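User: Quick one: structure for sequence A, then sequence B.

Assistant: Sequence A:
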Amino acid sequence: MDEKLQLVLHEAHRQFKSESVFFRVAGLTPKTWWKYKAGETAFSNIKTSTYLSITENLFTPYETMLIDEAVRATKYHCYSDVIEAFHEIKLQHVKNMLELRASIEVIIPQKEEGRPIRKTSSRIRIIQEIGNVYSNIITFEINIPPYDVPSGHKNRLNWFNDNYKECLVR
């Protein structure tokens, strides 16, 4: 299976209540989604607009860039699979971003028809500002309520360093 598709499937299952919710949110028809999953349509030949629609609902632009890094790391046997590579590379980048005074924000879950569309109750976003216009953003699902994340930059940094192994959903 294509490594990017493997990662997309993993993230769709991890983040969304169901595949049908994911492909509906991503603007795909059930037939199109099942063709990618079944390998009838090669994921490497996907239209750019479809790829963007899929990735924008699962990843930040910065994380989308990390997908290629994870695929390369897997091909060079640095990691056993692309999912492990992606999450480890994300953590390495986040640790570097936090050393450079990136901020940590808590994201309240999205709802559709009054119900959450994602599996976890909350997410955190690590933001590294670059100038006035651009920022690097990495997002993690967390398995604790948003009110359990402390406020204040230093408190959140200490909380993340002490708790990320237990709180981050892989």
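Sequence B:
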Amino acid sequence: MAMASEGGSPRRLPILACDGFMLAMDAMMRRSGQGGHYGGTLIELDRVPEMPALRVAWQRFVRAYPLVLGRLRRGLPGRVPRWEVPDEVYAEAVPVVELWHEPGVLGLDGAREVASVAALCVRRLNLRSEAGGREDALPNVRLDVVQCAGGGATVVVTWSHLLLDGKGVELLLTELARFATGQVDDPMPATLASASPVKLSVVQRRERRIAFLRHFRGLMSTPFTSLGRGEARAGAANFEVVTLGAAASGRVRERAGELASPLMPAPFYLACAARAHDRVFRGRGLEQPQVVTMPVQTRPKGGRGPMFQNHLSMFFVRLEQSDLETVAVATRAVQAQFGEMMRHRLDQAFSTVQNAMRRLPPRLYMAFLRWQARGEVASFFHSHTGAFAPQLVELAGAKVLHGYHLPTVCTPPGTGLFVSEWGDEMDVTLSWRGDVIDAAERGAMVEQFVADLVGEAVEVERRVVIESVSSF
């Protein structure tokens, strides 16, 4: 049955500059057997939400934002790929909000048993086998609710990184929670008012491309490495999440403000992630420079949306071994390069290049990047996404106790360290692909990262470990 669409989403939406990179990475992952580029987000609740209310809210949400059902079309060579939205939203096309229960928990009507939240995440985030290799037939966003021991519940959100980034998912959940209360007026902006890049003259575009390529080739002037060793190969997505308590998290924020800046703490977190990776590199006898990206959100601060697409500007940083001696030295090295890039507006130059490269076939896009990087993509992935959905306090009658992301990574590079914040606490997510890092190395990496963040070794709560027993 068709449902009237209430949203203002455009029927055809060109991808943004950063979306092109995500599309190229997704294509590399699919070709090498890693599956599509999906991310996960977990919301812990004090009870099972009111399932009828949640399902109705989800139907209303998709009606208001039919881009959830959109399909990415590449079109003719040289054209910018675009999202195409169906003219009508059919109820049967809306992904079902499924209910599960852990063993020993009396399931509500219609609930199916699953071994654990982690087991469901393994299944949802390694979707290749479930779709028989046809990831494009899978939903862009999927919601599952797991009844947990003790009366609580966890909502598992699986989402395509081609359509959403982490902040976008937080906005989606905040809007869904609002819809669950019956407030469906004044919907959040789904996309930018105008997705078209700033108009530049031929000379301006040429100058920006030259500036970026000069900088980029300087970064790649000598070899660097990743734990994936530059090889695109099959492997399941795995995660370990640890939580820092309020006291330890407070010390992290103080150190970030002192060593970097309260207004721009990202260099501190990136420096700590680089040192954590360096410990594992040195354990393998690898003492090479690191080249990493520092994503910066470009959504208007304090605004409601836009919800969909990847709103990121990328900064590239190169760290030599001498830059990694201490956290303070590493932070200054990142800050210096970030300042240099801002002075020369290399973020704008990179955006100009990315806008042009959107037209390339994904395989050619990634081939160009990896050719420049001698087979690699980066030494690792990293982001600090800040406060997790501050306005998300209740979902369909259940109190939200905690929320965090499970960002997937590709090989190469094979690993990533990510930080998000829930209230006074911080969550650290180590993400890895297949067998690129063993258990001892993972322990050393997390230990080093936490110690550098806090300034000393502290006890952490291991929140969840999600590890696939198979490798596709």
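The chain has two domains: 2-180, 222-388+409-466. The longest strand covers residues 398-406.

User: Thanks, that's what I needed.
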